[in-house]
Structure formats: structure tokens, C-alpha cells
Amino acid sequence: MLREISSGGVVLRRRGRSWGIAVIEPQREAVAGKKETMLLALPKGLVDPGETAEQTALREVREETGLTASVIAKLADIKYVYVRSWGDKQRVFKIVSFYLLRYKSGRIDDVSSAMRVEVKRARWLALDRAAHELSYRGERDVVQKAQDYLRSHPNP
């Protein structure tokens, strides 16, 4: 079985008394006759040769959301198996390291036209809604860890 190592981030931004996080709606192929539901995910991607997982998380956030951020803490590693929907249809064992990040600058959804192949749009989502609205269980668990972190570190 193939293995992939990726990294991503939960980008925090305070809005008044509440927190928001940056999420993406990935591009997907339309399937004839099937109603498309909105897919929401955290920004993430493959670790490039010579990169650390933290560097990858920051790069992927910048590329997929248009935001720059700084690392606060590592939240979790999630592991899962998926079947490639393209090319060889192989099963892949994937590990994704997620980091809690603080928003520094940038405008959400200000991504390159080349990145639109991967990202339909990026947007802010209220942190307290994210555990209900993200599409993947593992990422919902990561957001719960971010909420736990904020309860014990109110001013990260």
C-alpha cells in the first residue's frame, strides 16, 4: 500500500469575542445525476522534499486560502486509508499532521488561478460551528482539539 505524509492547519482569527477558522471547499468532479453536497475541509497538502511538517502547513494554508499564519502548537496526527479517485485507483495510507496557527495577514480566498484546480473557494467559519460543518470526522476531531487548546490557553 502506498503511503502519503501531509500537513495542514487550523488557522485561528479572533472576531470580537469569538474565533473563526479558515476552511476550504475543494474542487470536485461533478457526477451526472448526483446532487452535489458542499464539502468543507481544512487546508492541507503533501510534505515536499526538504520541508518540515510545520513549513508544509504554513505553505498549504497560504496556497489554499491566501492567508499567512504562524504556528502556535501541534494539534494532532490523523491517519486514514483512501482509494485514489484518479489514475491508478490505488489504496493509500495517509498521515496528516495538523497545527494550530494564528492568522497574521492576507485576504481569505485570495488564491492563484492555478490553485483553483484544487480549491473552489476558501472562507471563514465560526470555530464553534466547525465541528458540525466540516465534512471529515478526523478534521472535526482536530477542531475539537483546537477548542480544547483555547479553553486552556485563552490568549494563544
What characteristics describe this protein?
3 helices; Nucleoside Triphosphate Pyrophosphohydrolase; 156 residues; globular; six-stranded mixed beta sheet; alpha+beta; 6 strands
Describe the structure.
23% of the residues lie in helices and 43% in strands. By secondary structure, it is an alpha+beta fold. The protein has one domain (2-152): Nucleoside Triphosphate Pyrophosphohydrolase (Alpha-Beta Complex), CATH 3.90.79.10. Strands 1, 2, 3, 4, 5 and 6 form a six-stranded mixed sheet that branches. A hairpin with a 7-residue loop joins strand 4 and strand 5. Helix 2 (127-133) packs antiparallel against helix 3 (137-152).
Task: Tell me which CATH architecture applies here.
Answer: Alpha-Beta Complex
State the end-to-end distance: 39 Å
| CATH homologous superfamily assignment | Nucleoside Triphosphate Pyrophosphohydrolase
Structural class: alpha+beta
Low-confidence stretches: none
The biggest sheet, with number of strands, parallel, antiparallel or mixed sense and barrel status, is:
6 strands, mixed
User: How many structural domains are formed by the residues?
Assistant: 1
